[in-house]
Design a protein that fits this description.
Elements: E1 2-5, H1 7-13, E2 20-24, E3 39-44, E4 52-57, E5 60-65, H2 68-71, E6 75-81, E7 84-88, E8 93-102
Parallel strand pairs: 1-6, 2-5, 3-8
Antiparallel strand pairs: 2-3, 4-5, 6-7, 7-8
Amino acid sequence: MNLTLTEQAKEKLREIPGDKMIHLSFDRGSCDIVNTLYEMKVINIRETESYEKIIQSEQLDFIVDDDFEDSYDHELTIDYKNNFFVFKNKNQTFNNRIGLRYV
């Protein structure tokens, strides 16, 4: 997957401690899968489950479900504007109000 971060997103995500990783998981209760990621969870570094994998970008680890890449057509840009993260690719903006939550 081509996962890129804008400068604004990198700046915000650099605040995350080095012993953490970012978990991107869908709300499976919705029928519109690409718009059902409402928050990025900051979790302790852990091993992946059998249905998960790690995507690295800008020295950050993102843990995602196996079907995450397919949902975004293998291309995702994460931006940060107006106190929210924005998920988009060259064709569309998927969600422009994604929060960051420490768990």
